[in-house]
Amino acid sequence: MPADQIVPRRILVTGTGANPGFGLARSLARLGHRVIAADANPLAPGLLLPEVVPQVIPSADDPDYGARMAGLCRALAVEAVVPAIENDLPPLLGMIPRLEESGVRMWLPDPASVHMCIDKAAFHEVLTEHGVPTPRSWWGDTLDQVPEDVELVVKPRRGHGAQHVHFVEKREHALLLSELVPRAMVQERLHGTEFTADCLVDRTGRASAILRRRDLVKAGLAAVSTTFHDAAVLALVRATLGVVRAEGLCCVQGFVKGNGQVAITELNVRIAGGFPLSEAAGADLVGQMVSGLFGQQVDHDRLAYRAGVFLANYVETLTVGDAADLGRTTTKEARS
Length: 336
What we know:
D-amino Acid Aminotransferase, Chain A, domain 1; disordered C terminus; Dna Ligase, domain 1; alpha+beta; 336 residues; 6-stranded antiparallel sheet; 3 domains; globular
């Protein structure tokens, strides 16, 4: 949608301390929306963006999370909430009726679909059941079946941001780590071209996907990435979206192995940290997400993109200051 046709909205983005939420808050603000940037950490980088209304909220497992979020939405006249971190999904799902009564929108798949995606074991099971290639995986009572002489990945069944992820070459090391990693699962490690697909699935089930190679990955984030086209990858990404009944904004990750076979590793029910590359390549990803969020038709033609566009990330200092100055945003300031 052209900038002069955009209706400014008041949108609360959670998880603005990590790349996905930070980037989404900045992109929404650039489109002209009033962004309430929320995070449990008062030093979260997204709270320091000059164009947002910063709000420190409880962590998702805090008993006061629901009341605080509902109160913020009322006080700041929030029109929509967009979670950008997995931890916020379970409590927000339970809040949907309460928020809708206050006129606050969210665009998420049904709860069963969300839980299927944030639990990596459940995700593996549904993909395997539907014949979607995915790495061999073991957890719980099946850990004793982890094979020898296979490169392995140990990770939490529920996790994000590459936290508690370990790569090992010996079964004994994987089993040891599985006792230390919370709710661990062990997967066969894949090699080849790693990719992310930035996806938007409209309310009719039609999906668009922008494919990005993860050319250089550091701490789970793509430091260098390049857009590409591949019919086989696109077909498998769309099959995955259909299997889990995805809706709204999400990202799918996987590998194109050396033999050309494609395998899916995960689906995140949120925007990906590297999505700015998709927008740089021509896809109106955030703009079309906002359209769908507010009940308008998603224009899939505006999600077309050019292959061969690259993006390089690096860590920079956003700002420095006195910690005593944090947390001084007031509701009055937020309404200005």
